[in-house]
DNA sequence: GTAGGGTTAG
């Protein structure tokens, strides 16, 4: 990735005579982000007959850490081993770090244990390696050995460990590292504080991040401190907070940089944030940030997430250079919109360009297929993933389980699920949700029991899936059981979706009053989803009184959404209350509500067919609607038969009771 | 002029 657009120094013809001149140019290249250039300079230097010294190798190793390239690390390794400086502590520490950054933890550790002398930097390099690979037990042993050998951890140790454990998203770990640092009395400089801000924000506690930020002296704060707070807000999709910090940093006289713009843009992820996103875009242009590929990628992502896919595409088309991320953000822009045809076209274009799709690219395609039920494309992507060795990845497998379940192929989903050697909680949760969606309620609940038996801890999403199974299956008692279990046994406070499932369950059973009481007792504010669930139940049970109350809550919350009006009108109509129907019509007119016709999508042989309520202009419409009419007829017959059987049973029952 | 350090895109 081009980080600095201009390279005056590096494009000159270089012909130095002294080693220190070569070293300076190599260091310059590394510091400017031109790792490959540094290696080329090294080769030129050797060609010119100048031998490297003990200063050369640490520079080279650092260059290699920046590109994280296995081959480069091997080349540097062989040069170091041939040189007289292979036992120098500076050189060796740089090599340990290089291996760590090139994902060669074994090589790093082998070198580390062979070092005859280690200083705090050497320990930090290896600790960081084990921390980011998730070997926390080894980290704690090494930390013990380090202190035992008389070397005290310093602020770099703490920063490395904090960053290393971030992938766990464990607030507990970050807090314990924080208190460890205070305990051993490390010097909390602005760099350490910045690390903590980012760490707390990433682990979900923006409040603590803010506490750390406020503790830094105003004059000590750097642009990174501000960026970290802005990025923290972005983690919570809080564009209001992000812009607030941005305004403050401008007032304090800071000059925003690339990270500031990227973080600000990534806080805009919903249509309401589009205007804000456009403003930040213009600030980015003024600052010259739009020359950087990562900023443009973020812009493309911002526009598509805010619903303006056309602007995203315009920017994407104008890019002279693209990375895998550029393609991925644009592909997922279309996939999230449900336009899988365009997503696939771009995917093919990406391959034709020679850019290689990665895990995220595939994930957005797979989830897009699930969203619109594009089964055939989904199967094609499945085959593609198998031939590209991506199917071994657990995250990809989970995505396919979800996709197949959403496409109604629960058997394919199940087959995949059982083929996974080691299933994660996400695999189980996805499968439960899939069963719930496909009407296999007993299996969903069985899977839940198995999770608990395996000793896995269900999370709030697992509970949501289980509650959805209960709600779709009308299993009220089981629903209460899970609802109680999540709060009491697992200490998970129910979110709005969990409450929504319970309301749905009560509503389906006709317990409308109970459902309403339940809503009134909720500790969180009911949203449109909850009221909508209850209104749906009022429609089924033809309850005008509660329906009126509920629909008015919905009219307040979302006055322009047509569905509640239509449902309430239906309730009135089912009771012959034509005055009510008329009143709803008037209300819709005065609130300027327009009912968009319902659409149904189906994919056959890769082609998407769209059906709307008003139009019957499909080329094979005659046949399709004839078939639908015949199905309807069958359903009506079946229903009649059922009710006559029920009547028979009832009369038999009365016969025997009398 | 050497090694281990802060923020940052999907």
From TrEMBL:
<keyword id="KW-0677">Repeat</keyword>
<feature type="repeat" description="PPR">
    <location>
        <begin position="323"/>
        <end position="357"/>
    </location>
</feature>
<dbReference type="Pfam" id="PF01535">
    <property type="entry name" value="PPR"/>
</dbReference>
<dbReference type="InterPro" id="IPR046848">
    <property type="entry name" value="E_motif"/>
</dbReference>
<protein>
    <submittedName>
        <fullName>Pentatricopeptide repeat-containing protein</fullName>
    </submittedName>
</protein>
<dbReference type="InterPro" id="IPR011990">
    <property type="entry name" value="TPR-like_helical_dom_sf"/>
</dbReference>
<feature type="repeat" description="PPR">
    <location>
        <begin position="119"/>
        <end position="153"/>
    </location>
</feature>
<dbReference type="InterPro" id="IPR046960">
    <property type="entry name" value="PPR_At4g14850-like_plant"/>
</dbReference>
<dbReference type="InterPro" id="IPR002885">
    <property type="entry name" value="PPR_rpt"/>
</dbReference>
<dbReference type="GO" id="GO:0003723">
    <property type="term" value="F:RNA binding"/>
</dbReference>
<feature type="repeat" description="PPR">
    <location>
        <begin position="424"/>
        <end position="458"/>
    </location>
</feature>
<dbReference type="GO" id="GO:0009451">
    <property type="term" value="P:RNA modification"/>
</dbReference>
<dbReference type="Pfam" id="PF13041">
    <property type="entry name" value="PPR_2"/>
</dbReference>
<comment type="similarity">
    <text>Belongs to the PPR family. PCMP-E subfamily.</text>
</comment>
<feature type="repeat" description="PPR">
    <location>
        <begin position="18"/>
        <end position="52"/>
    </location>
</feature>
<dbReference type="Pfam" id="PF20431">
    <property type="entry name" value="E_motif"/>
</dbReference>
<feature type="repeat" description="PPR">
    <location>
        <begin position="222"/>
        <end position="256"/>
    </location>
</feature>
């Amino acid at each position: 990735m081009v980080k600095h657009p201009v390279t005056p120094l590096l494009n000159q013809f270089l012909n130095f005579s002294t080693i220190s001149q070569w070293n300076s140019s190599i260091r310059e290249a590394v510091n400017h982000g031109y790792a490959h250039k540094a290696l080329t300079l090294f080769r030129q230097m050797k060609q010119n007959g100048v031998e490297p010294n003990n200063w050369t190798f640490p520079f080279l190793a650092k260059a290699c850490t920046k590109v994280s390239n296995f081959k480069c690390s091997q080349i540097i390794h062989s040069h170091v081993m041939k040189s007289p400086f292979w036992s120098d502590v500076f050189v060796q520490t740089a090599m340990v770090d290089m291996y760590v950054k090139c994902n060669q933890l074994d090589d790093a550790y082998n070198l580390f244990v062979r070092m005859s002398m280690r200083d705090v930097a050497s320990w930090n390099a290896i600790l960081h390696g084990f921390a980011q690979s998730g070997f926390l037990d080894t980290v704690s042993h090494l930390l013990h050995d380090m202190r035992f050998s008389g070397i005290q951890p310093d602020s770099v140790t703490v920063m490395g460990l904090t960053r290393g454990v971030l992938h766990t998203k464990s607030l507990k770990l970050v807090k314990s590292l924080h208190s460890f640092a205070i305990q051993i009395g490390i010097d909390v400089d602005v760099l350490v504080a910045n690390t903590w801000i980012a760490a707390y924000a990433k682990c979900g506690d923006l409040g603590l991040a803010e506490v750390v930020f406020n503790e830094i002296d105003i004059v000590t704060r750097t642009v990174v401190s501000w960026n970290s707070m802005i990025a923290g807000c972005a983690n919570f999709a809080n564009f209001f907070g992000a812009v607030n910090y941005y305004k403050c940093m401008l007032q304090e006289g800071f000059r925003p940089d690339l990270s500031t713009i990227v973080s600000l843009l990534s806080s805009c992820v919903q249509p309401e944030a589009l205007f804000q996103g456009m403003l930040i875009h213009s600030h980015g242009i003024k600052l010259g940030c739009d020359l950087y590929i990562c900023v443009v990628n973020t812009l493309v992502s911002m526009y598509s997430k805010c619903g303006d896919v056309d602007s995203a595409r315009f920017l994407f088309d104008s890019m002279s250079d693209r990375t895998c991320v550029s393609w991925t953000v644009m592909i997922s822009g279309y996939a999230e919109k449900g336009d899988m045809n365009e997503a696939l076209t771009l995917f093919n274009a990406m391959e034709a360009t020679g850019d290689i799709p990665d895990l995220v690219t595939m994930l957005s395609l797979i989830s897009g297929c699930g969203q619109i039920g594009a089964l055939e494309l989904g199967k094609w992507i499945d085959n593609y993933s198998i031939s590209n060795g991506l199917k071994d990845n657990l995250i990809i497998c989970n995505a396919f389980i979800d996709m197949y379940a959403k496409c109604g192929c629960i058997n394919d989903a199940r087959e995949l699920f059982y083929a996974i050697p080691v299933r994660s909680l996400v695999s189980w949760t996805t499968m439960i949700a899939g069963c719930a969606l496909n009407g296999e309620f007993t299996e969903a609940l069985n899977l839940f029991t198995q999770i608990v038996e395996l000793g896995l801890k269900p999370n709030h999403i697992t509970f949501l899936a289980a509650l959805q199974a209960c709600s779709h299956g009308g299993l009220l008692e089981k629903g209460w059981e899970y609802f109680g279990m999540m709060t009491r046994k697992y200490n998970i406070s129910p979110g709005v979706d969990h409450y929504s499932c319970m309301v749905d369950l009560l509503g389906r059973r006709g317990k409308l009053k109970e459902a309403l009481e339940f809503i009134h007792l909720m500790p969180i504010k009911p949203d449109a989803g909850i009221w909508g669930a209850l209104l749906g139940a009022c429609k089924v049970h033809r309850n005008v009184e509660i329906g009126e109350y509920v629909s008015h809550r919905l009219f307040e919350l979302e006055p322009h959404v047509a569905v509640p009006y239509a449902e309430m009108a239906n309730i009135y109509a089912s009771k012959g209350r034509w005055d009510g129907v008329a009143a709803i019509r008037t209300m819709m007119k005065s609130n300027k509500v327009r009912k968009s016709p319902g659409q149904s999508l189906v994919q056959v042989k890769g082609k998407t067919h769209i059906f709307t309520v008003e139009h019957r202009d499909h080329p094979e419409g005659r046949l399709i609607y004839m078939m639908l009419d015949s199905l309807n007829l069958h359903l009506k017959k079946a229903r009649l038969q059922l009710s006559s059987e029920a009547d028979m049973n009832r009369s038999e029952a009365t016969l025997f009771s009398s």
